[in-house]
Design brief:
The structure is a single chain. The chain is α+β, with helices and mostly antiparallel strands and 190 residues long. It has 2 domains: 131 residues, Immunoglobulin-like, CATH 2.60.40.10; 31 residues. The chain is built from 2 helices and 10 strands; from the N terminus they run αββββββββββα. Strand 3 and strand 4 form a beta hairpin. The longest helix is centred in the C-terminal third of the chain and has 29 residues. It is elongated and about 95 Å long.
Length: 190
């Protein structure tokens, strides 16, 4: 006769056997990206102009890395397609564990750009930063970070869908109300 505890023990042993080889494995190096600005990381980058941005790149992993390439992307028309706005080599800069580097670059924001919202009256867009780096072992990887930029002069995209839904609901409720009034009047009249 087989004890029911054996049925529980088998899956536990399989899970342990799968995870033990990975327990001592070194994880991939990972960078921490921070947009450094004059007001706690808040940047204003006017549409149609070039602004200087500063990015802190911190090596948060235990392996040394070499910074290879820095790239900045924007989605100018909010279509979901990121366009490369700036790219430059970082010269294979050596970055040890818990050390950071600062990448200062010029970003030219297109004249015709849309923003998803406006904060404090300033349209905001998203900036995608990609840092290509190489670990000591030769493996190459990419770290990504998305940051909000204030873009004076950008067009704020209007969300008319909510207005149309509101009008449709109001129209339906008005029709139901009118039908209710007509039905109740017919029931009362002799």
């Amino acid at each position: 006769m087989v004890n029911w505890q054996h049925y529980i023990l088998i899956p536990v042993m399989v899970l342990l056997a799968i995870n033990i080889p990975h327990a001592g494995a070194q994880t991939n190096p990972q960078l921490s990206l921070t947009l450094v600005g004059p007001n706690m990381g808040h940047y204003l980058t006017p549409a149609g102009q070039t602004s200087t941005l500063k990015m802190e790149i911190l090596n948060a992993a235990r392996l040394d890395v070499y910074l290879l390439q820095g790239e900045a992307y924007l989605d100018p028309d909010l279509s979901g397609t990121w366009q490369l706005i700036h790219s430059e080599p970082l010269g294979g800069f050596h970055l040890a564990f818990l050390h950071s580097a600062f990448w200062t670059f010029d970003l030219t924001v297109p004249t015709k750009i849309q923003a998803a919202n406006a904060t404090d009256g300033t349209p905001q867009v998203s900036l995608l930063i990609k840092i290509v780096y190489q670990a000591v072992g030769g493996t190459q990887d990419v770290e990504r970070g998305v940051f909000a930029l204030g873009v004076p002069g950008a067009t704020v995209q209007q969300h008319y869908e909510a207005v149309w839904y509101g009008l449709a609901v109001a129209l339906i409720l008005m029709c139901i109300g009118m039908a209710y009034v007509v039905v109740t009047k017919r029931r009362r009249s002799p």
